[in-house]
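Page 47, continued from p. 46.
Same chain as before, 120 aa.
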Amino acid sequence: QLQVVESGGGSVQPGGSLRLSCAAPGFTLNYHGIGWFRQAPGKEREGISCFASNTGNIYYADSVKGRFTISRDNAKNTVYLEMNSLNSEDTGVYYCAPLTGCPGTNFGSWGQGTQVTVSS
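Result:
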């Protein structure tokens, strides 16, 4: 089953920035939707951003709008999530997933995710 690999997480202070990467070996990301999700401690996984290549739809959850930017590099077959002005509520495990659209359903397997910790 399709597997994605997330990377780029880490520990930052409030107000800091991180860029997460999502790779899908053997699968062309730019032909499908792709989404970023996060799971905060003690909470369910939530979708925070997605885009769909075929429709051009882009979505950001209200909690990240204006601070996070989703983008892709077709040559590297990689999708990014640029995160700025991070705060403690952004702490969690971040996952990416190939989607049937934006919004859409994950049609791959969840990866291990990448941990983001925002703390002073």
